[in-house]
Design brief:
heterodimer, A: about 170 residues, alpha+beta, three-stranded antiparallel beta sheet, globular, B: about 190 residues, five-stranded antiparallel beta sheet, about 35% helix, Proteasome_beta_3 (chain B), cytoplasm (chain B)
Protein backbone atom coordinates (compact mmCIF):
# COMPACT_ATOMS: atom_id res chain seq x y z
CA UNK A 1 0.00 0.00 0.00
CA UNK A 2 1.18 3.49 -0.81
CA UNK A 3 -1.12 6.12 0.64
CA UNK A 4 -4.58 5.27 -0.66
CA UNK A 5 -3.34 3.24 -3.62
CA UNK A 6 -2.87 -0.51 -3.55
CA UNK A 7 0.28 -1.42 -5.43
CA UNK A 8 0.33 -5.14 -4.79
CA UNK A 9 -2.27 -7.36 -3.18
CA UNK A 10 -0.10 -10.36 -2.39
CA UNK A 11 3.22 -9.23 -0.96
CA UNK A 12 4.92 -11.84 1.20
CA UNK A 13 6.29 -9.95 4.18
CA UNK A 14 7.90 -12.96 5.85
CA UNK A 15 11.60 -13.72 5.39
CA UNK A 16 13.55 -16.80 6.31
CA UNK A 17 16.58 -15.47 8.15
CA UNK A 18 18.91 -18.41 7.59
CA UNK A 19 18.39 -18.20 3.81
CA UNK A 20 17.94 -15.34 1.31
CA UNK A 21 20.03 -12.20 1.45
CA UNK A 22 19.82 -8.54 2.57
CA UNK A 23 21.64 -7.14 5.56
CA UNK A 24 20.47 -9.09 8.59
CA UNK A 25 19.83 -12.17 6.53
CA UNK A 26 23.39 -11.89 5.18
CA UNK A 27 24.86 -11.61 8.65
CA UNK A 28 22.82 -14.54 9.96
CA UNK A 29 24.01 -16.53 6.96
CA UNK A 30 27.62 -15.47 7.61
CA UNK A 31 27.36 -16.77 11.16
CA UNK A 32 25.94 -20.07 9.95
CA UNK A 33 28.81 -20.46 7.46
CA UNK A 34 31.55 -19.48 9.94
CA UNK A 35 30.35 -21.69 12.76
CA UNK A 36 28.81 -24.41 10.65
CA UNK A 37 25.63 -24.13 12.67
CA UNK A 38 22.56 -21.92 12.57
CA UNK A 39 22.03 -19.20 15.17
CA UNK A 40 19.43 -19.97 17.80
CA UNK A 41 16.26 -17.85 17.59
CA UNK A 42 17.16 -16.17 20.90
CA UNK A 43 20.63 -15.23 19.68
CA UNK A 44 19.28 -13.99 16.38
CA UNK A 45 16.54 -11.96 18.09
CA UNK A 46 19.10 -10.24 20.29
CA UNK A 47 21.33 -9.60 17.29
CA UNK A 48 18.47 -8.01 15.34
CA UNK A 49 17.54 -5.96 18.41
CA UNK A 50 21.12 -4.73 18.65
CA UNK A 51 21.06 -3.61 15.02
CA UNK A 52 17.70 -1.91 15.48
CA UNK A 53 18.75 -0.22 18.73
CA UNK A 54 21.87 1.19 17.07
CA UNK A 55 19.80 2.40 14.15
CA UNK A 56 17.23 3.98 16.50
CA UNK A 57 19.65 6.73 17.56
CA UNK A 58 21.11 7.26 14.09
CA UNK A 59 20.18 9.96 11.58
CA UNK A 60 17.84 7.70 9.64
CA UNK A 61 16.40 4.94 11.84
CA UNK A 62 14.76 1.80 10.48
CA UNK A 63 11.00 1.99 10.79
CA UNK A 64 9.95 -1.63 11.05
CA UNK A 65 8.09 -3.77 13.54
CA UNK A 66 8.87 -7.45 13.47
CA UNK A 67 7.85 -10.79 14.85
CA UNK A 68 10.62 -13.35 14.93
CA UNK A 69 9.64 -16.99 15.07
CA UNK A 70 12.01 -19.91 15.12
CA UNK A 71 12.90 -23.37 16.30
CA UNK A 72 16.20 -23.86 18.10
CA UNK A 73 18.48 -25.96 15.87
CA UNK A 74 19.82 -27.93 18.85
CA UNK A 75 17.08 -28.15 21.47
CA UNK A 76 14.21 -28.00 18.91
CA UNK A 77 12.42 -25.58 21.23
CA UNK A 78 10.12 -23.18 19.35
CA UNK A 79 10.12 -19.51 20.31
CA UNK A 80 8.52 -16.26 19.24
CA UNK A 81 9.83 -12.73 19.74
CA UNK A 82 8.00 -9.45 19.52
CA UNK A 83 10.19 -6.57 18.38
CA UNK A 84 8.94 -3.08 17.60
CA UNK A 85 10.58 -0.17 15.72
CA UNK A 86 11.92 1.22 19.02
CA UNK A 87 13.86 -2.05 19.43
CA UNK A 88 11.89 -3.23 22.44
CA UNK A 89 12.27 -7.00 22.46
CA UNK A 90 10.00 -9.41 24.29
CA UNK A 91 9.76 -13.20 24.21
CA UNK A 92 6.05 -14.00 23.91
CA UNK A 93 3.76 -17.01 23.47
CA UNK A 94 1.71 -15.15 20.81
CA UNK A 95 1.85 -11.66 19.36
CA UNK A 96 0.62 -9.19 16.78
CA UNK A 97 1.60 -5.72 15.60
CA UNK A 98 -0.29 -2.55 14.83
CA UNK A 99 -4.08 -2.25 15.09
CA UNK A 100 -4.37 -6.03 14.81
CA UNK A 101 -3.03 -6.26 18.38
CA UNK A 102 -6.23 -4.78 19.75
CA UNK A 103 -8.35 -7.48 18.09
CA UNK A 104 -6.06 -10.53 18.03
CA UNK A 105 -4.44 -10.46 21.47
CA UNK A 106 -7.72 -10.81 23.34
CA UNK A 107 -8.73 -13.77 21.16
CA UNK A 108 -5.32 -15.37 21.69
CA UNK A 109 -5.49 -14.68 25.45
CA UNK A 110 -8.64 -16.76 25.57
CA UNK A 111 -7.86 -19.56 23.12
CA UNK A 112 -4.09 -20.05 23.20
CA UNK A 113 -2.62 -23.10 24.94
CA UNK A 114 1.12 -23.65 25.35
CA UNK A 115 0.88 -27.22 23.97
CA UNK A 116 -1.40 -26.59 21.00
CA UNK A 117 -1.06 -28.61 17.79
CA UNK A 118 -0.59 -26.92 14.42
CA UNK A 119 -4.18 -27.72 13.40
CA UNK A 120 -5.56 -26.14 16.57
CA UNK A 121 -3.26 -23.17 16.00
CA UNK A 122 -4.56 -22.61 12.49
CA UNK A 123 -8.12 -22.69 13.88
CA UNK A 124 -7.30 -19.91 16.34
CA UNK A 125 -5.55 -17.98 13.57
CA UNK A 126 -8.73 -18.27 11.54
CA UNK A 127 -10.70 -16.82 14.46
CA UNK A 128 -8.23 -13.91 14.48
CA UNK A 129 -8.54 -13.18 10.75
CA UNK A 130 -12.33 -13.48 10.98
CA UNK A 131 -12.30 -10.86 13.72
CA UNK A 132 -10.06 -8.60 11.63
CA UNK A 133 -12.42 -8.95 8.66
CA UNK A 134 -15.34 -8.21 10.95
CA UNK A 135 -13.95 -5.20 12.79
CA UNK A 136 -11.22 -3.51 10.76
CA UNK A 137 -12.46 -1.04 8.15
CA UNK A 138 -10.00 -2.18 5.49
CA UNK A 139 -10.29 -4.03 2.21
CA UNK A 140 -9.00 -7.42 3.29
CA UNK A 141 -6.57 -8.88 0.76
CA UNK A 142 -5.88 -12.20 2.43
CA UNK A 143 -3.17 -13.78 4.49
CA UNK A 144 0.08 -15.63 3.98
CA UNK A 145 0.52 -18.37 6.56
CA UNK A 146 3.75 -20.25 7.14
CA UNK A 147 4.74 -22.84 9.71
CA UNK A 148 8.25 -22.88 11.15
CA UNK A 149 9.14 -26.41 12.22
CA UNK A 150 12.38 -28.10 13.18
CA UNK A 151 12.57 -29.49 9.65
CA UNK A 152 12.22 -26.09 7.96
CA UNK A 153 9.62 -23.58 6.87
CA UNK A 154 6.57 -24.54 4.89
CA UNK A 155 3.60 -22.70 3.45
CA UNK A 156 0.21 -23.48 4.93
CA UNK A 157 -2.97 -23.55 2.92
CA UNK A 158 -5.19 -20.92 4.45
CA UNK A 159 -8.79 -20.30 3.46
CA UNK A 160 -9.24 -16.54 3.49
CA UNK A 161 -12.09 -16.29 0.94
CA UNK A 162 -14.74 -16.66 3.62
CA UNK A 163 -16.83 -13.50 3.92
CA UNK A 164 -17.44 -12.39 7.48
CA UNK A 165 -20.16 -9.85 8.11
CA UNK A 166 -20.35 -7.50 11.07
CA UNK A 167 -23.54 -8.26 13.04
CA UNK B 1 14.85 -1.36 50.18
CA UNK B 2 17.39 -1.63 53.02
CA UNK B 3 17.22 -4.13 55.89
CA UNK B 4 19.61 -5.24 58.60
CA UNK B 5 22.73 -6.49 56.76
CA UNK B 6 20.57 -7.13 53.70
CA UNK B 7 18.88 -5.30 50.85
CA UNK B 8 15.97 -6.17 48.62
CA UNK B 9 15.15 -5.05 45.09
CA UNK B 10 11.96 -5.83 43.19
CA UNK B 11 10.25 -5.07 39.89
CA UNK B 12 7.00 -5.84 38.11
CA UNK B 13 6.97 -7.81 34.83
CA UNK B 14 4.73 -5.81 32.52
CA UNK B 15 5.76 -4.58 29.10
CA UNK B 16 3.17 -2.38 27.43
CA UNK B 17 2.47 0.24 24.82
CA UNK B 18 0.45 2.85 26.71
CA UNK B 19 -2.62 0.91 27.89
CA UNK B 20 -1.97 -2.20 25.78
CA UNK B 21 -0.04 -4.99 27.50
CA UNK B 22 2.34 -6.73 25.12
CA UNK B 23 4.15 -9.07 27.52
CA UNK B 24 3.94 -10.13 31.16
CA UNK B 25 7.46 -11.55 31.17
CA UNK B 26 9.74 -8.52 31.02
CA UNK B 27 11.99 -8.35 34.12
CA UNK B 28 13.53 -4.98 34.93
CA UNK B 29 16.04 -6.03 37.59
CA UNK B 30 19.48 -7.21 36.42
CA UNK B 31 22.33 -8.79 38.36
CA UNK B 32 25.93 -7.68 37.88
CA UNK B 33 28.32 -9.86 39.82
CA UNK B 34 27.55 -11.48 43.16
CA UNK B 35 25.76 -8.71 45.01
CA UNK B 36 25.24 -5.73 42.71
CA UNK B 37 21.77 -5.25 41.23
CA UNK B 38 20.37 -2.70 38.81
CA UNK B 39 16.68 -1.95 38.34
CA UNK B 40 15.60 -0.03 35.24
CA UNK B 41 12.26 1.61 34.51
CA UNK B 42 11.25 3.72 31.54
CA UNK B 43 11.41 3.19 27.78
CA UNK B 44 11.63 -0.60 27.19
CA UNK B 45 14.20 -0.36 24.41
CA UNK B 46 16.48 1.69 26.67
CA UNK B 47 15.95 -0.76 29.55
CA UNK B 48 17.43 -3.48 27.31
CA UNK B 49 20.10 -1.23 25.79
CA UNK B 50 21.27 0.15 29.14
CA UNK B 51 21.25 -3.25 30.87
CA UNK B 52 23.33 -4.71 28.01
CA UNK B 53 25.69 -1.72 28.11
CA UNK B 54 26.35 -2.16 31.82
CA UNK B 55 26.80 -5.91 31.44
CA UNK B 56 29.57 -5.09 28.98
CA UNK B 57 31.08 -2.36 31.18
CA UNK B 58 30.98 -4.46 34.37
CA UNK B 59 32.53 -7.47 32.61
CA UNK B 60 35.31 -5.23 31.28
CA UNK B 61 35.83 -3.78 34.77
CA UNK B 62 36.10 -7.26 36.26
CA UNK B 63 38.67 -8.34 33.67
CA UNK B 64 40.71 -5.14 34.07
CA UNK B 65 40.66 -4.99 37.88
CA UNK B 66 40.48 -8.75 38.53
CA UNK B 67 37.80 -8.25 41.19
CA UNK B 68 34.04 -7.78 41.31
CA UNK B 69 32.62 -4.25 41.15
CA UNK B 70 31.35 -2.67 44.40
CA UNK B 71 27.84 -1.20 44.39
CA UNK B 72 29.08 2.34 45.14
CA UNK B 73 31.59 2.12 42.27
CA UNK B 74 28.85 0.77 40.03
CA UNK B 75 26.60 3.66 41.03
CA UNK B 76 29.24 6.15 39.89
CA UNK B 77 29.70 4.19 36.66
CA UNK B 78 25.93 4.40 36.03
CA UNK B 79 25.93 8.10 36.81
CA UNK B 80 28.80 8.98 34.48
CA UNK B 81 27.52 6.71 31.70
CA UNK B 82 24.12 8.39 31.81
CA UNK B 83 25.60 11.89 31.91
CA UNK B 84 27.62 11.09 28.78
CA UNK B 85 24.25 11.17 27.05
CA UNK B 86 23.34 14.53 28.65
CA UNK B 87 21.66 15.96 25.54
CA UNK B 88 20.20 12.77 24.13
CA UNK B 89 19.52 10.70 27.22
CA UNK B 90 18.47 7.11 27.70
CA UNK B 91 14.89 7.35 28.94
CA UNK B 92 15.39 5.26 32.07
CA UNK B 93 15.36 5.86 35.83
CA UNK B 94 17.81 3.34 37.29
CA UNK B 95 17.98 2.01 40.85
CA UNK B 96 21.10 0.36 42.25
CA UNK B 97 21.04 -2.02 45.23
CA UNK B 98 23.78 -4.16 46.70
CA UNK B 99 26.04 -5.04 49.59
CA UNK B 100 29.54 -3.65 49.89
CA UNK B 101 31.88 -6.62 49.20
CA UNK B 102 34.30 -5.55 51.97
CA UNK B 103 32.10 -4.32 54.82
CA UNK B 104 28.83 -6.04 53.89
CA UNK B 105 27.01 -2.73 54.41
CA UNK B 106 23.79 -2.28 52.42
CA UNK B 107 23.92 0.26 49.60
CA UNK B 108 21.03 1.67 47.60
CA UNK B 109 20.64 4.68 45.35
CA UNK B 110 18.53 5.96 42.49
CA UNK B 111 19.18 8.17 39.46
CA UNK B 112 17.32 10.44 37.07
CA UNK B 113 17.69 9.82 33.34
CA UNK B 114 20.85 11.96 33.09
CA UNK B 115 22.65 10.40 36.03
CA UNK B 116 22.03 12.60 39.09
CA UNK B 117 22.50 10.22 42.04
CA UNK B 118 19.92 10.12 44.82
CA UNK B 119 21.39 8.36 47.87
CA UNK B 120 19.01 6.98 50.48
CA UNK B 121 19.27 4.92 53.64
CA UNK B 122 15.73 3.51 53.57
CA UNK B 123 14.26 2.89 50.11
CA UNK B 124 14.33 4.05 46.48
CA UNK B 125 11.39 3.88 44.08
CA UNK B 126 11.07 4.53 40.36
CA UNK B 127 8.66 4.08 37.46
CA UNK B 128 5.04 4.90 36.66
CA UNK B 129 3.87 3.69 40.09
CA UNK B 130 6.50 5.72 41.98
CA UNK B 131 3.91 7.85 43.80
CA UNK B 132 2.04 4.76 45.00
CA UNK B 133 5.35 3.10 45.93
CA UNK B 134 6.43 6.11 47.97
CA UNK B 135 3.20 5.90 49.96
CA UNK B 136 3.45 2.15 50.54
CA UNK B 137 7.15 2.17 51.44
CA UNK B 138 6.73 5.18 53.70
CA UNK B 139 4.07 3.37 55.72
CA UNK B 140 5.41 -0.23 55.70
CA UNK B 141 9.17 0.22 55.95
CA UNK B 142 10.96 0.30 59.30
CA UNK B 143 14.67 0.20 60.16
CA UNK B 144 16.61 -3.05 60.76
CA UNK B 145 14.27 -5.54 59.06
CA UNK B 146 15.62 -9.09 58.77
CA UNK B 147 15.73 -10.81 55.34
CA UNK B 148 12.35 -12.56 55.73
CA UNK B 149 10.58 -9.46 57.05
CA UNK B 150 12.25 -7.37 54.37
CA UNK B 151 10.93 -9.73 51.68
CA UNK B 152 7.42 -9.47 53.09
CA UNK B 153 7.62 -5.68 53.34
CA UNK B 154 8.97 -5.06 49.83
CA UNK B 155 6.53 -7.56 48.29
CA UNK B 156 3.46 -6.12 49.98
CA UNK B 157 4.59 -2.59 49.13
CA UNK B 158 5.16 -3.46 45.47
CA UNK B 159 1.98 -5.50 44.98
CA UNK B 160 -0.24 -2.93 46.67
CA UNK B 161 1.35 -0.08 44.72
CA UNK B 162 1.13 -1.70 41.28
CA UNK B 163 -2.50 -2.69 41.85
CA UNK B 164 -3.27 1.04 42.08
CA UNK B 165 -1.40 1.76 38.85
CA UNK B 166 -2.99 0.74 35.56
CA UNK B 167 0.38 0.63 33.78
CA UNK B 168 2.20 -1.70 36.21
CA UNK B 169 1.85 -5.19 37.63
CA UNK B 170 1.32 -8.57 35.93
CA UNK B 171 3.70 -10.45 38.24
CA UNK B 172 6.88 -9.47 40.04
CA UNK B 173 10.46 -10.51 40.72
CA UNK B 174 11.84 -9.97 44.23
CA UNK B 175 15.54 -10.34 45.12
CA UNK B 176 16.73 -10.42 48.72
CA UNK B 177 20.49 -9.92 48.94
CA UNK B 178 22.33 -11.14 52.03
CA UNK B 179 26.00 -11.70 52.66
CA UNK B 180 26.91 -14.85 50.63
CA UNK B 181 23.28 -15.44 49.64
CA UNK B 182 20.86 -14.07 47.08
CA UNK B 183 17.23 -15.23 47.06
CA UNK B 184 15.12 -14.62 43.96
CA UNK B 185 11.38 -15.09 44.27
CA UNK B 186 8.69 -14.83 41.61
CA UNK B 187 5.37 -13.32 42.65
CA UNK B 188 2.44 -14.12 40.39
CA UNK B 189 0.43 -11.07 41.37
CA UNK B 190 -2.83 -10.03 39.71
CA UNK B 191 -3.02 -10.95 36.03
CA UNK B 192 -5.81 -8.54 35.04
Amino acid sequence: MRGATILKASDDKTRQLNKHTLYIQANAQLYSMRNETDLSPTALAHYVRGQLATSLRSRKPYNVNLLLGGVDPITHKPSLFWLDYLAALAPVPYAAHGYAQYYCLSILDKHHHPDMTLVQGIKVLEMCTDELKRRLPIDFKGMIVKAVTKDGIRDIEFNDDKVVKCP
Amino acid sequence: MVGKDCVAIACDLRLGLQALTVSNNFPKVFQYGDNVFLGLTGLATDVSTVSDLFRYKVNMYRLREERAIAPSTFANLVSSSLYERRFGPYFVSPVVAGLDPKTGAPFICGFDSIGCIDFAKDFIVSGTASEQLFGMCESLWEPNLGPEDLFETISQALLSAVDRDALSGWGAHVYVIEKNKVTKRLLKGRQD
